[in-house]
Write a structure and sequence with these properties.
Layout (H helix, E strand, L loop, with lengths): L1 E6 L3 E8 L3 E2 L4 E4 L6 H10 L7 E6 L3 H13 L4 E3 L5 E2 L2 E3 L9 H13 L7 E6 L2 E7 L4 E9 L1 H11 L17 H28 L4 E5 L3 H11 L5 E3 L3 H8 L2
Parallel strand pairs: 1-5, 5-6, 8-11, 9-12, 12-13
Antiparallel strand pairs: 1-2, 2-3, 2-4, 7-8, 9-10, 10-11
Helix pairs in contact: 1-2, 3-7, 4-5, 5-6
Length: 253
């Protein structure tokens, strides 16, 4: 059994993959704050696994301190951890970043997971992941990562307005066509910015490849932006992929 770890900015997603049992359907999430509680939480989770894991594979964007805590907890359980880094090519996916190693490891693993969902010939794929940051990446029909966007996620956009201005609150709520109070204006503006960025990349993909892309979406912020994205992309095929990073890690050998 291989333990799979997607260590993000605010939480860690955990899963496992077994040669005969397959990939675990359920995914376990742990908050990274407070950090002092993370090792014990990880050790307790390991005791719930149906088989003793022999190794772990993961990606980490949370920094060196978090990585060390996780490595130590897994080592104590006899489960050595390999952090995955981006490469020029893997599993038939080619990384066209100017400097392939500078691509975020989580984005690279997610692209490998995305490719695994579309083994046959397919339209271009746009993967929009709405987390602490929103990333919008494009995979060509011949499995070349063309590049993508990084922008603040929905929650981070709201926080930046509340923290960076004197009179704007930390807002949430329903969106509307013509907001008539500040909370609506912020909520609608955030969702519009997210959906607009997705529209931009889908429009570019359609013009570049001459065919409408398949929009794949993921992340905890998706429910907040879903209605607006679907409104702006009426007629476009949209697929939800729950955990593309863990899917990619499970595919690696």
């Amino acid at each position: 059994m291989i333990v799979l770890l997607d260590v993000g900015n605010s939480r860690i997603k955990l899963g496992w993959h077994h040669p005969t049992m397959g990939r675990e359907a359920a995914v376990h999430a742990m908050a990274l704050s407070p950090l002092t509680q993370l090792p014990d939480a990880l050790r307790k989770w390991l005791t719930t696994l149906p088989v003793q894991p022999r190794a772990a594979r993961g990606v980490n964007v949370a920094g060196h301190v978090v990585a060390q805590l996780i490595e130590q907890a897994l080592a104590e359980a006899g489960c050595p951890l390999q952090w995955i880094l981006p490469t020029t090519e893997h599993l038939g996916v080619r990384n066209a970043y100017d400097k392939p190693t500078q691509l975020g490891a989580d984005r690279w693993a997610a692209l490998l997971g995305l490719a695994g969902h579309f083994q046959e010939t397919h339209a271009p794929l746009v993967l929009a992941t709405f987390g602490t940051a929103t990333t919008i990446d494009t995979l060509s029909p011949d499995k070349v990562f063309k590049g993508g966007l990084i922008l603040p996620g929905p929650a981070l956009m709201r926080q930046s307005l509340a923290q960076g201005t004197a009179n704007l609150p930390l807002a949430s709520g329903a969106t509307t066509e013509y907001p008539t109070h500040t909370l609506q204006a912020i909520a609608t503006g955030v969702v519009a910015a997210q959906a607009g960025a997705v529209w931009r990349q889908c429009d570019i993909a359609q013009k570049y490849f001459g065919v409408a892309p398949i929009l794949c979406v993921s992340g905890g912020g998706w429910p907040e932006v879903e209605a607006e994205v679907r409104r702006m992309h009426a007629g476009l095929k949209i697929e939800f992929i729950a955990n593309p990073v863990l899917d990619g890690l499970a595919r690696m050998r």
